Amino acid sequence: MTDWRPEELLICRLADALAGDRHVAVGAASPIPGAAALLAQEEAPRRMHVTVLHSRRYNHFTDGGRELFDCAGQGRIDTFFLGGVQIDGQANINLVGTGDYPTLTKRFPGSFGSAFMYFAVPKVILFREEHSPRTLVEKVDFVSAPGCSPEGTWRRGGPTLLVTSLAVFAFDGARRRFALESLHPGVTAETVAERTGFAFDRPAEVPTTAAPEPARLERLRRTIAPKVAEFYPVFAERVFGVTEPAA
Amino acid sequence: MTDWRPEELLICRLADALAGDRHVAVGAASPIPGAAALLAQEEAPRRMHVTVLHSRRYNHFTDGGRELFDCAGQGRIDTFFLGGVQIDGQANINLVGTGDYPTLTKRFPGSFGSAFMYFAVPKVILFREEHSPRTLVEKVDFVSAPGCSPEGTWRRGGPTLLVTSLAVFAFDGARRRFALESLHPGVTAETVAERTGFAFDRPAEVPTTAAPEPARLERLRRTIAPKVAEFYPVFAERVFGVTEPAA
Amino acid sequence: MAMTAFAPISLEALAEAIPDGALLAVPPDYGGVAMAATVALLRRGTGGLRLYCLPYSTLQADLLIGTGAVAEVEAAAITLGEQGLAPRFSAAVEGGRLTMRDSTCPALHAALQAAEKGVPFMPLRGLLGSDILANRPDWKVIDNPFEAGDPIVLLPAVVPDVALFHAPRADAEGNVWIGRRRELATLAHAAKRTLVTVEEVVEGSFFESEGSAANALPALYVEAVAVAPRGAWPCACPGLYDADPAAIGDYAKAARDEAGFRDYLKRLLDGRIAPCVLEVEPA
Amino acid sequence: MAMTAFAPISLEALAEAIPDGALLAVPPDYGGVAMAATVALLRRGTGGLRLYCLPYSTLQADLLIGTGAVAEVEAAAITLGEQGLAPRFSAAVEGGRLTMRDSTCPALHAALQAAEKGVPFMPLRGLLGSDILANRPDWKVIDNPFEAGDPIVLLPAVVPDVALFHAPRADAEGNVWIGRRRELATLAHAAKRTLVTVEEVVEGSFFESEGSAANALPALYVEAVAVAPRGAWPCACPGLYDADPAAIGDYAKAARDEAGFRDYLKRLLDGRIAPCVLEVEPA
Questions:
Q1: Hey, is the C-beta of B90 within 8 angstroms of any chain D C-beta?
Q2: Domain contains D84
Q3: How does DSSP assign D93-145, residue by residue?
Q4: Domain count, chain D
Q5: What total of structural domains would you count in chain A?
Q6: For residue A92, which of A115, A123, A72 has the smallest C-alpha distance?
Q7: How many CB atoms lie within 10 A of CB C258?
C-alpha cells in the first residue's frame, strides 16, 4: 500500500523532467502535466515561466491564439507535452483517428498544434495515461506529427520521454527507438511488454520509477493542488480533495 | 482679393477628390490632407472612416505601427496621400535625397511607407505645396516608389492627382504622363510651365480650380478647424485662428 | 452632419447577412463563439457552408455539421473538449458526408495573417513528414530561397467571406471590445466582412482612454453588430462568463445519435434550450 | 518558494547589458523611446551599433549617430519630424561615415514578424521597381509559387540582439504595460533580449483583470527593467506625456553643426539637459 496516488507519481516524474527549463507550456486538457509544471516552477532555483493554456491565471499570453506557436517558433518554450490517440515506436503521433484516412473508422478531434510544436520545441514529452496495444502501436494510422525527420529538416528537438500509467520510456532520436527507462512501482517489465504494441529496448535491469518523497508530496498537496484547482477543479478535487482554488 | 486662404482652397480641392471613399488615411506631417479628409467625412452621405496617423483622436488603429500597412494591404484604404522631395513626370517619388545614392548631395529622411502604399492603395494623391523645378523634376535621383509598374506587377492603383500650391494635375497611368487639370485662381499656365521640371499635357483651355463656396468655408472653419487643432495646433491657429481643439 | 453614427441590427438580420456557401471563419470556444447567431442562422436555414476554424471549434461546428449545413471544414480539431468527442462531426467524417481539411493550429493562424497583410502566402516551419501536409495539395513545399537544402511549407492566404464572433461589448461608434483575444482582430482583418454579436452596446468610445483602446477592434473592420445577451452561451464569453459544461454535456449526450441530435435541434430552434430556460431532459 | 519574483535593475546596469556592435532595435518617437537609457549608454561609451528602427527614428538615432557610436542604420527614415531634418544623420550619410540600409515601414515590421513567427522570411507586396529594392542585395524577388508570372519580394527574418524601449509602467511580476503600441510586442518577440525602461513599477499584476491584461507584454519576453521617470523625454510616452517640441527644437538647432552637437552632447552627458533641468543656451 502506498501513501501516494498514481497521479502524484506521474506529476513528480514529469516535474523532474522539467528541471532547468526556463519556460514550460502545457496545452489544453492536461491536468497532470499542468500540475507537474507548477511543481517544477515551485522547486526551480531560478525564475521559471509556466504557461497553462487552459488557465486564466497561468496564461499570460496577450497576442491571441497564435502566441503559443510564435513563442515556440522563437525558441522560448523549452518543454511541451503531447499525447496521441496512437503513438508508435518511431514516436510518430496520431490525433486524427484510426482506419484509412480520410473517412477513417473512428474519427478523433484532430492534430491541434502538434505538427508544428513537435518540431519547434526542444523537449517534447509524450504523455498518455492509457498504456495498451491500442494506444502504443507499431505504426500510427495517420501521422499528425512525425517523431523523427530526415537530415536537413528544420527541427529544434522532438520527443525525449514517453510517460504512461505503467512506465517511462526514453526516446533515442538517432536510433529512432524507445528504451524502457523505468517501471512504476508494482509494474513488471512483462506487463509493459504485453501492453506495448511497438518494439523497444529493454535493459537487463529496469529501475523502478522513484516514489514521491514525503516533503515533495506535502508541497504538491499544499501549494500546487490549490493552484491546479483554478483550471482543473474536477481533477483537483478527485486527486487532492481540494475544492478551493488558491487565492 | 479673395475671402479664403490658399490652404482652404487646397483643402476643399483635396476633399472633392475623396468623395465616395469609405476610408481615407493620412500620414504624418500632413495638416492640409488631414483637414481635407475630415471635411470629406463631414460631407459624406454615408459613413466614412478617416485615419489621421498623427492624431490620437482620429487614429483608431490598435495593432501597432504595422496596421496602416496591413489595412492598405487588405484593400481597406481607398485614398492615401504621398509627397516627395522630388516628383517626376512619370509620378516617381523620391523621399531619400538628391545626388548620387548612397552618399547623396543632400540626404532627406527616407521613404517611410511609400514603397508599399503607392502599390496597395487604389488612389494615391500626390501633394506638395512647393511647385518649383527643384521639386517637380524630369527624373528623380532616387525612386522611393515608382509611379508606374510593368504588366504583371501586383498593383491596386497608384497616382491619380498631383496637387500643388499652383495647380492640379491628373495622372494618366497608361500614358505615364501628367496633364494639367486646373490652375488655382490667379495662376497662369505659363507660370506653371516655367516652374515645372517635367513635360506634361496642357489642354488649350485650362479651367480654374473652383474657389470654395461660402457654406463650405463656414463648415471648414466652424466644424473642421477645431478638429484639426487637436493634431496640428500650430497649423490650425495660423490658418483658421483656432486655438481650442474640439471638445 | 458627419455620418459616423452606428446602429446595431437584429440577430435575424445578422443571420441573413451570411450567404449559403460562405467561407465562414469562427473562433475557438475560448475566443467568443457567436452561438445565438448560429441558432439564428439555423432558424433561417442555411447550407453549403465552408467553416474555417481558428484554430478549432466545439459545439458550434458540431451543431452546424449535424444539420447538414456544412460542406467542408478546415480546422486543427473539432471536439467537445472535456465533454468528449464531437459526435456529429465524427459521424459525418466517418460517413463520408463531410470534407475535412485537416490542418494544424499555427497554419490556420498564419493563412489568415497572410490575408491580413495582403500577401499571397506565408511560410511555416514544421509539418514536413506529416500526413496533414501529405493531404493538402493546396500547400506547397519550396526550398528556402535564403538557404539551399532547407525545405519549408508555404500556405496560401485565406480570405474568409465572413468572420463571425461574439464579444463582450461594442461602443457607441461600433468599436468592438475584444480584450486580449487578438485572434479576433486577425480574423476581422483577414475577412471580407465581419459580423459580431455583443452582450451590450455601451455609451461613449473605447478610444477615450488608452487603457480601453488597447482592448478594441476598430469599427472600420466591422460590417454589423447585433446585441445578443449571453450570446456565446453555452461557450464562454472571455472576461464575462465561463463555458457551461453541464449544457455542453447535455448536447454531447443528446447528439450521440442522429435521432437524439434531431430532437435536440428541434428544441433548440423552438427556443426551449436557451441560457435562461435550460431544459434538461430526464436521464 | 517559487522563484517568480522580479527586481528592476539600475539604468547603468541596463546600459551595460547592451554590448558594443549589437543589432539594437528601437521604436519610433510615438512608441516609447528609451531616451534616458540612451543617455546612460552614451555615458558608458559604446560603438559599432547597428540600429534597426521600427520603422523610423528621430532624436535617439540622430544623437547616437552624432557621437559616432553607430556603424549602420536600417530604417524607413531618420528625421526630427516637425523640427526638421535629422542633422547628424544627414551629415554622416553625406560624409560617407554611415551605412544606411534604406527600407520602407512595412518591410521593417514584416522582417521582425518573420522572427516573431520563427520563419526564415516573409513576403511583401510593393517595392518592385524602387531603388530601395535595387539597393538591398539581402532581399530576394521570387515568382509567387501559387501564381506564375507574379513577382514578389521576400525579406529575410531579422532577429535583433537587443530591443530597447520605454513604457509607462511594469507590474510587480515584471510584465510591461505597452497599451496599443503592439509593435513593442513584436519587437520583444523578435529580439533575443529585451531591455525596458519604465516610468514606475506598480503593485499587483496587470493580469488581475482582462482589461489591463490586454495592455501587457508578458514578463516572459523581458530580460530586465529599469525605472526611469520621464525616461522617454523629450520624446513622448504613449498615454502619459507628449513629446516636447521645444526641447527637440533646441537639439535641432544645436546639432546643425559638429561643434554645436559636441557642446550639446557634453551638456547632456553632464546632466545639464534633462526633463526637469532643461538648460536653454542663449541664441
A1: no
A2: yes
A3: HHTT-SEEEE--HHHHHHHHHHHHHT-SEEEESS-TT-HHHHT-TTSEEEE-T
A4: 2
A5: 1
A6: A115
A7: 12
Residues D137 and D242 in one domain: no
Q: Kindly determine whether residue C77 and residue A111, on different chains, have CB atoms separated by under 8 Å.
A: yes
| Residue entry with cell 490652404 | B7
**Of the partner residues A63, A69, A153, the one whose CB lies closest to the CB of residue C105:** A69
Instruction: With beta carbons less than 8 A apart as the criterion, state whether C53 and C26 touch.
Output: yes
Q: Please, which pLDDT band fits residue C282 given cuts at 50, 70 and 90? A: very low
Do D169 and D212 belong together in one domain? yes
Does residue B204 have a pLDDT over 50?
A: yes
A110 touches A96 (CB < 8 A): yes
**How large is the average pLDDT for residues B91-110?**
98
- Nearest beta carbon to residue B104 from set D94, D150, D151: D94
User: In what helix (H) or strand (E) does residue C92 lie, and over which residues does it extend?
Assistant: helix C87-94
Residue D126 and residue D229 in one domain: no
Residues 138-197 of B with CB under 8 A from D: 142-146, 149-150, 152-154
Contact flag A60-D220 (C-beta cutoff 8 Å) = yes
D146/C123 CB distance under 8 A: no
| ipTM value | 0.96
CA of C120, closest CA in chain B: separation in Å?
Answer: 11
pTM for this prediction: 0.96
pLDDT in tens, C163-207: 999 999 999 999 999 999 999 999 999 999 999 999 999 999 999
Q: Which residue on chain A is closest to C183 by alpha carbon?
A: A64
Q: Do A16 and A209 touch, CB atoms closer than 8 A? A: no
CATH number of the domain enclosing C88: 3.40.1080.10
Instruction: Report if residue D126 sits inside a domain.
Output: yes
Is the Cβ of B75 closer than 8 Å to some Cβ of chain C? yes
Same domain, D151 and D163: no
Boundaries of domain holding B65: 6-84+113-130+153-240
Identify the domain containing residue D43 by its residue range. 11-106+159-269
Residue A210 belongs to some domain of the structure = yes
Task: Say whether both C152 and C186 belong to one domain.
Answer: no
| Residue pLDDT tens, chain A, 247 long | 469 999 999 999 999 999 999 999 999 778 999 999 999 999 999 999 999 998 888 999 999 999 999 999 999 999 999 999 999 999 999 999 999 999 999 999 999 999 999 999 999 999 999 999 999 999 999 999 999 999 999 999 899 999 999 999 999 999 999 999 999 999 999 999 999 999 999 999 999 999 999 999 999 999 999 999 988 888 999 999 988 888 7
Q: What is the H or E stretch that residue B118 is in?
A: helix B114-120
Do residues D191 and D72 both lie within one domain?
A: yes
Rounded Cα–Cα distance for residues D132 and D128 (Å): 9
Q: Which residues of D touch A69 (CB under 8 A)?
A: 117
Q: For residue B152, with 0-12 CB atoms within 10 Å meaning exposed, 13-18 middle and 19 or more buried, which class applies? A: exposed
Interface test with C, best of D30, D105, D119 (most C CBs within 10 A): D119
CATH number for the domain harbouring residue A124: 3.40.1080.10
